Amino acid sequence: MSFEPPIPISIDFFKYYVTDIEAYLRGTDFLVRDKEYPPKYYETSKGEKIVIRQATVDEADVILEPLKEIMDLGFDKDFYHLVAARTYSEILAWKQRRVKDHVALVAVHGNELQALVNFRLWNEKLAISLHTITFRRKERLGIVSYTAKVEHAFEVLGVDEWWATFESPFGFRMGFRLVHGMKPYPEYQHELGGGRVFYITKRDWDAYVKAKVEKYLGSRPVPEELYKESLNLKPPERLEIEL
Ligand SMILES: CC(C)(COP(=O)(O)OP(=O)(O)OC[C@H]1O[C@@H](n2cnc3c(N)ncnc32)[C@H](O)[C@@H]1OP(=O)(O)O)[C@@H](O)C(=O)NCCC(=O)NCCS
Fold first, then answer.
1. Number of independent structural domains in the chain
2. CB 3.0–4.6 Å: which of 1, 53, 133, 142 could bond 39 by disulfide?
3. Is 161 a domain residue?
4. How far, in Å, is the centroid of ligand 1 from the Cα of 6?
């Protein structure tokens, strides 16, 4: 359908280059650019030091590998299939600049990817949690990584509110442990499929949430060698997601 302009226009055809259009299609990253999460490490029950650090967009292809493997009916347990499919699309959109102010953090053992979390900023005040997925279970790497992204949003990026939604019982359990409140539903809907919005305010984080998850916060600074090794990121050698 085309519309006649209400007044005459001097010419009736413009030629655009794809490069002219690109700026309209891409999400911006002004709010997260140059605001790096200070890396830390978490010690597992076996004494392994797992580095939790910000991922770079150059690492997107490595991150996509395990997600692609799990994005399959064979992994239709504990919502791994669905979460992998959604997270795959988010990481791909990040790589191809189709998401606004996206941040991904990775949990890394040696140089092996163990867990992934991501979120994005709606604006300076509001962070939208996207996904949490661990490729190795029973070591609390999921909740450790989730706590890290909440910490990043409040303490580095300075938001006032964190909005999550939970797709799985194990995800809900993380939310429960971080004492999220719930916005009235369906008046408020999360961008992930219109799910319920579970939220934490900065005041809650400072007043009691952070203290409640203290054991998942890990330690700083990361020993230099350990950090360096984590930069040579590789996909997990095997998936350890069966309980
Ligand atoms: C949600 C998720 C990130 C949580 O990760 P996590 O915090 O590391 O927890 P795990 O999945 O390893 O589950 C560990 C819990 O399972 C339970 N558990 C472990 N082994 C068990 C067993 N053999 N029998 C019964 N329960 C067991 C324990 O309660 C344990 O918690 P604890 O360590 O506090 O004791 C992870 O389950 C995941 O990636 N799931 C798929 C994707 C998903 O659902 N993401 C969230 C979307 S909202």
1. 1
2. 53
3. yes
4. 60
Which pLDDT tens digit goes with each residue over 196-227? 999 999 999 999 999 999 999 999 999 999 99
| Ligand 1 atom closest to residue 80's alpha carbon, by position in its atom list | 41
63 and 240 Cβ atoms separated by less than 8 Å: no
Confidence (pLDDT) at 118 = 98
Q: What angle do CA 59, 60, 62 make, to 5 degrees?
A: 70
Q: Does the pLDDT at position 1 exceed 90?
A: no
Q: Is residue 129 one of the residues assigned to a domain?
A: yes
Cα of 142 vs centre of ligand 1, distance in Å, is 7
81-93 per-position pLDDT tens digit: 999 999 999 999 9
- 183 bridge partner residues: none
CATH number assigned to the domain comprising residue 149:
3.40.630.30
- pLDDT (0 to 100) of residue 38: 98
- Is 138's C-beta closer than 6 angstroms to any atom of ligand 1? yes
Pocket test for ligand 1, best of 136, 170, 178, 212 (most atoms within 8 A of CB): 170
Please report whether residue 13 resides in a domain. Answer: no
Q: Confirm if 64 and 88 have CB atoms less than 8 A apart.
A: yes
Q: Is 60 helix (H, G, I), strand (E, B) or coil?
A: helix
Share of the chain above pLDDT 90, in %: 98
